[in-house]
Design goal:
The structure holds two protein chains of two kinds. Chain A is α/β, with parallel strands linked by helices. The longest helix of chain A is centred in the last third of the chain and has 18 residues, at 186-203. In chain A, α4 (113-123) crosses α5, α4 runs parallel beside α6 and α5 packs across α6. In chain A, strands 6-7-8-3-9-10 form a six-stranded mixed sheet, with helices on both faces. A four-stranded antiparallel sheet of chain A has the order 2-1-4-5, with helices on one face. Chain A contains eight helices and ten strands. Helices cover 35% and strands 28% of the residues of chain A. Chain B is an alpha+beta fold. Chain B contains 13 helices and 14 strands. In chain B, a hairpin with a 2-residue loop joins β3 (94-109) and β4 (112-121). Chain B starts with a helix and ends with a helix. Classes of the chains: A alpha/beta, B alpha+beta.
């Protein structure tokens, strides 16, 4: 089946989602966060997901990032059928195929930048050369001299760079950024955007940015607009 | 993640919350400390008690009369019983028999008077019981024969009566108003587990029988202290004694009107009693260890709640359930392990202090911190940490990454 999917895809898609739905049960009330979403994202594409709050864009991001499973529908990430995996297999997929960048950075405050970037390597079971790989990732985002600083000793922009290095250190298939510039001023935010776009250009990592900032989405190749759990446009 | 990294990470996290970590550890410290101290004090008491029983002599058998409903017509032990047992033809395993009578008698000298345990003894009593004299001579066969009014005092008794013990020999004191000449002072045996062995007085058996304790012409004695030929023949000797007494008292089988105690039996009883005490004290201490464990669980649960977001992040980065569980279990086990180590030191310190206090108050008593109690405490405290860490760790591992990441 996996082979079949790849054969029928002309554009080498990294994400194929068919009729995704997500229903939350809150007591007796069912909330349809996603109603019916089908989309395809190609390898190396830069896509932004937009929509007002409550449109289901966080839910979609969680499912695409393998943090959550859809209630209905099929989702294939980089050739692997995700919708049928168990918790540990999902953890492994997240570790190998997905890099996350969050609005609030989400760094371990007690640990240095280097240790933060090492963390995905540890969970991947890499035992030797982790420091060198982590250091290279930090140098790639322009933080070479600050690898031994703790998050509290870094500016917001620098912290987000650490987060990006951490997201990329396992060379994932996709990079999911949830409002990556939301906590930064516009100048630093633009620097982070430039960095993300550059990384996409150099390494070909698929970039998915969830945002409600039109200036950010204007810099992406494609915008997926969500409303009420449905895709409004899928250009 | 391998073990070393989990350890380092756990240490880092415990270090970040120094005050909380040390307060959590305190519960385990106190618990383990109490367990160690109680076990060592119990072991020390046991060795002191068994030691003082062994001091009595290793080949002794004690016979006393025993009233029991099963015996229709109990007969007391008599001098004749003692003589029969002393007969080498009837009881080849018996070396010596020392019959005794005991009573509480008031001793007085000048204005002082003390009431103490007075024992009527025969001349071989000193040999059988390993008694040595500080001053003077022991009661002789002749003195027993002529019911002499002589007394031997324990050092404490002499001290209480006279205020000193040197030169007491030759003085005349009164026992129940009758004049007795002091002919000797016993060597100090120290405070034993069965009362102070230095506070007593010895008189000739015949004197005690006729004038002091029984005051009637009777052959009755209270107990027989019998020395076997050697410690291996103790069992044979007690069989022989049983047969002789059963024949002489004409008791039915299984309805003896006397009881035989070997020193081994007394040792066994003492060991059982101190053992029960140790288990009891250790059990009470173990409860505090349990409370310490619950403290760990409490703090780990708080820690899980506080670090929900961190757990979510770790899961997003690829941490599996197992990784999260190990992380939290390592923290709780480390807490209890360190607590246990400090507790061992504390317990050792407590038992040392208890030993010093005991020595200062005149009871030589050495608490023994055994390797077994250290091992037990370490294992138990780590197990407590693991056990009480399981619930918080599972709770952390089962958090949904989406919800964990959303929490503030």
């Amino acid at each position: 089946m996996v082979v079949g999917w790849e054969e029928c895809s002309v554009d080498n898609p990294v994400i194929v989602a068919n009729h995704l739905a997500k229903i939350y049960k809150m007591g007796k009330v069912e909330v349809h966060a996603l109603v019916d979403v089908s989309l395809q994202i190609n390898r190396g594409e830069v896509v932004s997901i937009m929509g007002p709050s409550g449109s289901g864009k966080s839910t979609l991001m969680n499912i695409l990032g393998c943090l959550d499973l859809p209630s209905k529908g099929e989702y294939m990430l980089d050739g692997e059928m995700v919708s049928t995996l168990n918790d540990d297999q999902l953890a492994s997929i997240r570790n190998r195929k997905v890099g996350f960048v969050f609005q609030s950075f989400n760094l371990l405050t007690r640990s240095t930048a280097l240790v933060n970037v090492e963390l995905p390597l540890r969970y991947a079971g890499i035992s030797s050369g982790r420091k060198i790989i982590a250091q290279e990732a930090l140098e790639a985002v322009g933080l070479g001299p600050r690898i031994h600083h703790k998050p509290s000793e870094l500016s917001g922009g620098q912290q987000q760079r650490v987060a990006i290095a951490r997201a990329l250190v396992n060379k994932p298939a996709i990079l999911m950024a949830d409002e990556p510039t939301g906590n930064l001023d516009s100048k630093v935010g633009q620097e982070i955007m430039d960095l993300l776009l550059n990384l996409n250009k150099e390494s070909g990592t698929t970039l998915i940015i969830v945002t409600h900032d039109p200036e950010i989405s204007a810099q992406t190749q494609r915008v997926i607009k969500l409303r009420d759990g449905l895709v409004e446009n899928n250009s | 993640m391998n073990f070393g990294q989990s350890l380092l990470e756990a240490l880092e996290s415990l270090n970040a919350n120094k005050l909380r970590s040390s307060l959590t550890m305190l519960g385990i410290v106190i618990g383990v400390g109490a367990v160690i101290a109680m076990l060592s004090i119990g072991a020390g008491a046991q060795s002191t008690i068994t030691g003082s029983i062994q001091d009595i002599g290793s080949n002794l058998i004690f016979v006393s009369s025993q009233r029991s409903d099963a015996v229709r017509n109990p007969k007391p032990l008599t001098i004749e019983d003692a003589q029969a047992i002393a007969d080498p033809l009837q009881a080849p395993s018996v070396d010596q028999v020392a019959p005794t009578i005991q009573g509480k008698i008031e001793l007085s000298f000048g204005g002082e008077s003390v009431t103490t345990s007075v024992t009527g003894v025969t001349a071989n009593y000193s040999q059988v019981n390993n008694e040595t004299l500080y001053e003077g001579d022991f009661i002789t066969v002749e003195q027993n024969y002529e019911r002499a009014s002589v007394v031997i005092l324990g050092p404490t008794t002499a001290e209480d009566l006279f205020g000193y013990i040197d030169g007491v020999v030759g003085q005349t004191i009164r026992l129940d108003g009758q004049p007795f000449r002091v002919i000797g002072i016993l060597d100090s045996k120290g405070g034993g587990s069965f009362g102070n062995q230095d506070d007593r007085a010895l008189v000739p058996l015949s004197t005690a029988q006729m004038r002091l304790i029984h005051r009637s012409p009777s052959n009755r004695v209270d107990s027989l202290t019998i020395q076997a030929v050697n410690s291996e023949s103790v069992i044979n000797a007690s069989d022989e004694i049983t047969q002789i007494l059963q024949t002489r008292h004409r008791t039915a089988v299984g309805a003896d009107d006397f009881s035989i105690f070997t020193q081994q039996a007394i040792l066994d009883i003492a060991t059982t009693i101190t053992g029960v005490f140790t288990v009891f004290l250790g059990g009470v201490a173990a409860i505090s260890l349990l409370v310490g464990g619950i403290g760990i669980m409490n703090i780990m649960l708080v820690s899980v709640t506080e670090r929900t977001r961190e757990i979510g992040l770790r899961k997003a980065l690829g941490g599996r359930k197992r990784d999260i569980t190990i992380q939290f279990l390592t923290e709780s086990s480390l807490l209890s392990l360190f607590g246990g180590l400090i507790g061992i030191f504390l317990g050792w310190l407590i038992s040392l202090i208890v030993g010093e206090i005991a020595a200062a108050s005149g009871t030589p008593f050495t608490p023994v911190v055994g390797l077994d109690s250290i091992l037990l405490a370490t294992l138990f405290s780590t197990a407590v940490g693991l056990f009480f860490g399981i619930y918080p760790a599972t709770r952390a591992a089962n958090l949904e990454p989406v919800e964990a990441l959303r929490s503030e």
